[in-house]
Specification:
binds magnesium ion; 11 helices; binds threonylcarbamoyladenylate; 316 residues; 9-stranded mixed beta sheet; single chain; 31% helix; alpha/beta; 15 strands
């Protein structure tokens, strides 16, 4: 059920239900972080392994502080600069956060989302919300309330319109005085490095082996997906199928072998491409296409984030 009534959503959360929620990145599947039954229901609804921890969404830096043992200087600097917004910080949890939420990790993922409706909701509640993306495990992330409804028709979803960013938050960890990139996301690494200097990638961090999540296969349509710099070259190898090509900014050549051509951003804007990628994949998936060929984006800024999602969507 889709609703724009925030009071209904608040009631459902107080009852311990799971609800769909808009954020500036993608829609989340949310519940009261302090209600273990409700948190369990999130894992069940998503069919997500309980070894994959959840992000906690808070209304303020103070509410975040109440969940952690310490807040490293660089984490605080980033929180002050980017919250509310699409950066998730991995911080040492205190006993108020259950092991179920963090999948037995010593650290908890936290962010303040910037969608106005969700901020309003968080301010009406006296508990934070856990919210993974509102898609079944491994499927395409939802960027509209209708996407959530099509996955989970029996839950209430708060309608906040199409998501502004269209890709998930950037996730950062902290090791000694270093910042570690754990997931490319809606804030490009260039913007983070401009503030805190060079950051490490995951493979350079010493606790890499203990990090959960980040499955190789993820974000997938039900049909086959290929990501390449040369869509037409790939097309020649896949005759006799209903094929769609998703171009970055221009259709290079209209081929009769292609059933549908989509363009992510006619002006070549990486942010617009990021905003559209998941909704284009949803649309093509629903058309019953056999194969989607996606043009790889330039490897910079949000292009890195979209390419990361496409590589996972293409993984076997
Ligand atoms: O933009 C977003 O981050 C969206 C919206 C709804 O906020 N949420 C989202 O959640 O993308 P999810 O669960 O789909 O992805 C969260 C990722 C997973 O890969 C998970 O393994 C990782 O964050 N994660 C969560 N808690 C963690 C922790 N304590 N340590 C390391 N990684 C963690
Ligand atoms: Mg997800």
């Amino acid at each position: 059920m889709i609703t724009s009534d925030i009071k209904i959503i608040r009631e459902r959360l107080l009852e311990g239900d799971v609800i769909g929620l808009p954020t500036e990145t993608v829609y989340g599947l949310a519940a009261n972080v302090f209600n273990s039954q409700a948190v369990k229901r999130i894992f069940e609804t998503k069919q997500r392994p309980t070894s994959n921890p959840l992000i906690v969404h808070v209304a303020s830096i103070n509410q975040a502080r109440a969940l952690v043992k310490s807040f490293p200087d660089k984490a605080l600097q980033l929180a002050k600069a980017f919250w509310p917004g699409p950066i998730t910080l991995i911080l040492p949890k205190n006993q108020s956060v259950s092991d179920l939420v963090t999948a037995n990790q010593t650290h908890v993922a936290i962010r303040i989302p910037s969608h106005p409706l969700t901020l309003q909701l968080l301010n009406l509640l006296d508990f934070p919300l856990v919210a993974p993306s509102a898609n079944p495990f491994n499927r395409i992330s939802p960027t509209t309330a209708e996407h959530v409804e099509s996955y989970f028709p029996s839950i209430y979803t708060l309608d906040g319109g199409p998501c502004m960013s269209g890709v998930e938050s950037t996730i950062l960890g902290f090791e000694d005085d270093e910042v570690v990139l754990l997931r490319h996301g809606a804030i490009p690494i260039e913007a983070i490095e401009a503030m805190v200097g060079r950051i490490l990638n995951r493979t350079q961090a010493s606790h890499e082996a203990h990090l959960p999540g980040q499955h190789k296969k993820h974000y997938s349509p039900t049909c086959e997906l290929i990501v390449t710099y040369e869509p037409l070259f790939m097309l020649s190898a896949v005759k006799h199928k209903r094929v769609a090509i998703v171009w970055f900014h221009t259709i290079q050549i209209e081929s009769i072998d292609v059933e549908v051509n989509k363009v992510l951003s006619p002006s070549g804007d990486l942010a617009e491409a990021a905003q559209n990628i998941f909704s284009v994949l949803h649309e093509l998936d629903q058309m019953g296409i056999d194969m989607i060929i996606v043009e790889r984006l330039p490897a910079q800024g949000l292009g890195l984030t979209v390419n990361d999602r496409l590589d996972r969507a293409a993984a076997k």
